[in-house]
Amino acid sequence: MSRLFGSVRARATLGASLVVALALVAAGAAVLLALRANLTDQADGRADSAARDVASQLVAGRPFDDLDLPDEDDSPVQIVDENGRLVAASDDLERISGTGTGAVKPVGAAPRSGAGNQGDEDDKGEAPERGEVDEDAEYSSGSATVDGESADYRFAAVEASTEDRGDFTVYAGGSLADEQSATSTALTSMLIGFPLLLAVVAGVTWLVTRRALRPVAAITAEMSAITASEDLARRVPEPDTHDEIARLARTTNETLTALQTSVERQRRFVADASHELRSPIASLRTQLEVGAAHPELLDVDGAVEDTVRLQELAADLLLLARLDAGEKPGEGRVDLAAFVREELSQRTRDRVDVHTDLKSVEVAGSRGQLARVLGNLLNNAQRHARSRVTVTTRSDGAWAVLEVADDGSGVPSSERERIFERFVRLDDARTRDEGGAGLGLAIARDVAVRHGGTLVVCEAPSGGALFELRLPSPQSSAE
């Protein structure tokens, strides 16, 4: 059961059914209440009309035994005098409740002066008006038994005042049989129709959600197949719609593309790293084997150079691994002008002179990582410069800028992004000993990005390459 309702389709069907059920119950209750109120008002109207008709006869002077009372089944009537005695009632009335008295047999009214002339006036024709009927009526619910048949009624109580016989209250009933029959019929229809309507709603919701979620099932199946096959070149089907499921499919495919790119990049990285490591290791091994067999032929300087190169390559690979793992740059403050002077003072193997134009500007980050960036840019400039390398630091609004320019041949505009890829060397004729492994610029850009900055290359004023490193100043970072 929990597994069944764990599906979106089942929960959507259940939720829609519950909402519709609550709406139907509320609507049904409102309809029943409105129907009952309307039919009760109609019963009140019939009772009021019957009571006023009898009251009009009283004030017209008709004797009690000559009153034209309505049909007992439709409207039982009681007439009570001001002393609470029943003076007239419908024939065959056996029981009544909800009126002023439960009596069903008249006991007569107390005579008043002048009452004896009533018969003479009746003999002469219709008697003149001798009182008034109250405009207001009071209503109550009750029941009555007439000729053995019991039923529920709404009773209207109308006051009638006469000059010669006193005050009377006329109770007349309006049958609630129509109200009860209509209410019962409506309730029965609802009890039959509501479950059927709920079944239809549940079925339609189940089918609609099934169709709507069919692309999700296809996405799930394809993702399971991709996981099982480890084939990241596959893609999930994208429905030809513009809804959330289509966006989910597109996002999933974008994620798969990014993952495939990352895996392929990692594979190339491992293959290139293995290739780059093989050369210095093989060279070093060869020299050591020759030296072991013929000590006089051992090239110590070459072995040291290969060892240093191997050490630098291992350090580059380790730094790239840390950067890929998301290593934070830190929050230290570095003055670029002083930093550049200190780093240049430690370089002793530069092929050409390095000129500086330094202005003091601070950045926040890792001094060690920034030293690696400056060192890689200087090494790249030294390899390509003819006679001059220039290092500049300056402030440009919210950015701190460090530029390294050379007067070499420059970088073609079509290659200015590719040189930042790992293990890329534009000069294929250059030997590894002269050109390095092609990791320096990739490391420099990764460090710049981790520090919230950028590293780009453009043409220097002297025609060579100008590498521009932009880092946010601490003030702009704080803002």
Brief synopsis:
Helices cover 49% and strands 20% of the residues.
Average pLDDT for all residues = 83
Q: How many strand units?
A: 13
Shape: rod-shaped
Instruction: Detail the poorly predicted runs.
Output: 112-126, 428-433
What is the percent of helical residues? 40-55%
β content, as a range?
Answer: 15-25%
Largest sheet: 6 strands, antiparallel
Supply the helix-strand structural class.
alpha+beta
Report the radius of gyration as a whole number of Å: 53 Å
Biggest sheet strand line-up: 2-1-6-5-4-3
H and E order = HEEEHEEEHHHHEHEEHEEHHEEH
Q: N- to C-terminal separation?
A: 54 Å
Number of domains: 3
Q: How many helices does DSSP assign?
A: 11
Describe the 3D structure.
- This protein has helices at residues 8-59, 118-123, 177-212, 214-229, 244-293, 300-324, 336-345, 367-384, 432-435, 440-450, 474-478; strands spanning 77-81, 86-89, 93-97, 131-146, 149-162, 166-175, 333-335, 353-358, 362-364, 388-396, 399-406, 454-459, 465-472.
- Helix 1 (8-59) runs antiparallel to helix 3, helix 6 (300-324) packs parallel to helix 10 (440-450) and helix 8 (367-384) runs antiparallel to helix 10.
- The chain has 3 domains: 26-181, no CATH class; 215-327, Orthogonal Bundle (Helix Hairpins), CATH 1.10.287.130; 329-478, Histidine kinase-like ATPase, C-terminal domain (Heat Shock Protein 90, 2-Layer Sandwich).
- The protein is rod-shaped.
- A hairpin with a 5-residue loop joins strand 12 (454-459) and strand 13.
- Residues 112-126 and 428-433 have low confidence and may be disordered.
- By secondary structure, the protein is α+β, with helices and mostly antiparallel strands.
